[in-house]
Structures are given as C-alpha cells and as structure tokens.
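Here is the promised in-class demo. Please do not try to memorize the tokens; focus on the logic of going from shape to residues.
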C-alpha cells in the first residue's frame, strides 16, 4: 500500500528566488522603475537555470512587484505607500506611481450601533442610520493590498448610493457632494491579524499580520463625517509622520 503523500513544506527553487528578490525590492536594493539584473546575471547569482529564473520573475509579476518588457528586461513597479493621515490611500498610491485600482464589494445601510463602542458616546451622527462601504484596493496582478470598511451617515443626499455607487470611486468626493466635509480627525495605527474571511480577500493565510488603521473624521460642528477601518498589507504601506 502506498503511503499518504505529505504536504510540501520546502519552497521550490523558483519560489526561494522570488522571495529573495521580493525582499531586495521591498528593502530598496532595487529601486522603483529601475531594471532588475538580466536573467543570465540572476541565474549566476542563484545558480539556477534561465527557466527557473523566468518562473521566479513570473511570480514577482503576479505579486505586482515587477513588469517584464519582452526583449528589454524586467523593471521594478513596487512603490511603498506612506500612510499619511492627511493623504487618502488613492492619492498616496497615485503619487507613489503604483498602478492599482479599487473594487467596491458592497454598500449597505446599517444601524448606528455598528460604530465602535468607544466612539458611540463621543460622536454624534447627523443621521440615525449609517452606510457601510466595503472596498479592496489592488495593484498590478490583482493583488489586494488593502481592505477598507467605512461608516458614513445615511443622510438624504446619499439615498441612492447603494445603487449608484461612489463618485469617481472616491468616498471623499462622494461625501463632499453630499455636504459632508471633514474639518478634524483622529487616526490610530497598530498591528493586527487577518481573520478567515479577510485572509481570503488578501489571498493570505488566516493569522497573517497586517497594519490596521482606524480613522474618524468630523465636521466643523463635531458630527461624524466618516469612520474608516483599513487593513493594509505591510509590504506596501508604512506610517510616515511629520513633526
């Protein structure tokens, strides 16, 4: 009787090469928009065949770290995004040059009790109900780098939002059109782990570490404009504060 085959635990050679190059890219050894060494040079560095190197480069392409131009070479597309409180994620990614898009998963009405307990007593919502907006942000290769959940007041001006969608795929633009403009805010950033459902969206294992940003913005009169909770891939985001 043949024994049961054990799951593979040792990465294949092209996976090890891809991991090593990904670490170099994320550390800045290979700068954004710069070419990687040639396939021949990488083959010598890792004592690997050209086919193995190509498999590693294909894996990096799927991760959104590089792009390959036939006959020219492979170029770094990875741009780490600074998580600056005054800068929206879309603007931050655009300014860093990272190619990406946002996908709205759902927009639905919920009770005000959806706000975290610690905020319920300190924030007055201008409506009895809230709209819950769930989105993912992706880079080249459709890799998810952030999962964003926002709670905004369900004011009359946003009645058709679940059917019509966001203005220019932007929550800020949508709120501005509805007369909800942030005048002040607070943000907390710490380290968390992915639950089962969120891990599936990131295509990572449950329990993987992520950056967790919680941000609340208020209008001039102190009422709620938006509460946003973002789970961010630490390979793509970092916190940058200016004093």
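The designed amino acids, position by position:
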């Amino acid at each position: 009787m043949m024994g049961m085959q054990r799951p593979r635990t040792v990465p294949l050679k092209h996976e090890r090469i891809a991991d090593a190059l990904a670490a170099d890219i994320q550390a800045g050894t290979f700068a954004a928009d710069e070419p990687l060494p040639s396939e021949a040079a990488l083959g010598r560095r890792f004592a690997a065949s050209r086919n193995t190197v190509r498999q590693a480069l294909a894996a990096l392409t799927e991760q959104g770290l590089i792009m390959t131009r036939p006959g020219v070479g492979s170029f770094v597309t990875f741009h780490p995004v600074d998580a600056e409180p005054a800068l929206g994620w879309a603007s931050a990614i655009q300014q860093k040059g990272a190619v990406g898009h946002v996908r709205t998963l759902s927009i639905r009405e919920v009770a005000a009790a959806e706000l975290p307990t610690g905020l319920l007593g300190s924030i007055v919502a201008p409506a009895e109900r809230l709209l819950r907006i769930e989105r993912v942000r992706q880079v080249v290769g459709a890799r998810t780098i952030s999962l964003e959940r926002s709670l905004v007041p369900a004011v009359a001006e946003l009645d058709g939002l679940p059917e019509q969608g966001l203005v220019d795929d932007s929550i800020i633009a949508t709120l501005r059109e509805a007369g909800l403009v942030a005048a002040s805010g607070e943000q907390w950033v710490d380290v968390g782990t992915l639950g089962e459902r969120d891990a599936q969206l990131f295509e990572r294992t449950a329990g993987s570490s992520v950056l967790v940003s919680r941000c609340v913005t208020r209008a001039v009169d102190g009422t709620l404009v938006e509460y946003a909770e973002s789970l961010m891939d630490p390979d793509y985001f970092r916190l940058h504060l200016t004093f």
